[in-house]
């Protein structure tokens, strides 16, 4: 069996779980009054962008998980990695309200691009090229972390 097949199965399982979570969030959002502003096609595009971004990051976490000694260390390592990306992004506050030195980082990292693209598709907010920048980040993450994860798995198996 290919070493990559085991990891691909794991990351695809993560992706399926993410799809279920997104569906639950959309259902509850609709119950609470959320509505997609741009129609079904744009809603599907938002879901696809979020799922693809999650798929790319599942490869990052697969690699991180194999580089750590136990599950607790893997969870902590993943949290330390993702924490600054989330809080130094457009997810919670507008980037323009951040200090100048942080704005440069926040405007050029993948979570801000994912948030801006998702908001565009869901609510019609301006995207300013976020989708293309996000797709470049996703490709870059996959190009780097798939080989790293597969090679690490090969060494440990």
Short description:
Helix content is 78%, strand content 0%.
Describe this structure as you would to a colleague:
This protein is mainly α and 157 residues long. 78% of the residues lie in helices and 0% in strands. The chain is globular. 23% of the residues are buried.
Q: Would you list the SSEs in sequence order as H and E?
A: HHHHHH
- Number of distinct helices: 6
Structural class: mainly alpha
Percentage of residues in strands: under 5%
Task: For this entry, give a set of tags.
single chain; mainly alpha; globular; 157 residues
Topology (elements, then pairings):
Blueprint: H1 3-32, H2 40-67, H3 71-87, H4 100-106, H5 110-123, H6 130-156
Helix pairs in contact: 1-2, 2-3, 2-5, 2-6, 5-6
């Amino acid at each position: 069996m290919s070493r990559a097949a085991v990891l691909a199965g794991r990351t695809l399982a993560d992706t399926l779980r993410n799809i279920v979570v997104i569906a639950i969030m959309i259902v509850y959002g609709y119950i609470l009054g959320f509505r997609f502003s741009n129609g079904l096609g744009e809603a599907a595009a938002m879901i696809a962008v979020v799922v693809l971004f999650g798929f790319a990051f599942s490869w990052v976490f697969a690699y991180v998980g194999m580089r750590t000694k136990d599950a607790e260390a893997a969870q902590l390592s993943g949290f330390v990695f993702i924490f600054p990306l989330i809080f130094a992004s457009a997810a919670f506050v507008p980037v323009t309200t951040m200090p100048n030195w942080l704005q440069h980082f926040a405007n050029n990292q993948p979570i801000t691009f994912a948030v801006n693209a998702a908001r565009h598709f869901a609510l019609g907010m301006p995207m300013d090229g976020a989708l293309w920048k996000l797709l470049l980040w996703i490709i870059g993450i996959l190009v780097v972390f798939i080989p790293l994860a597969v090679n690490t798995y090969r060494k440990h198996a």
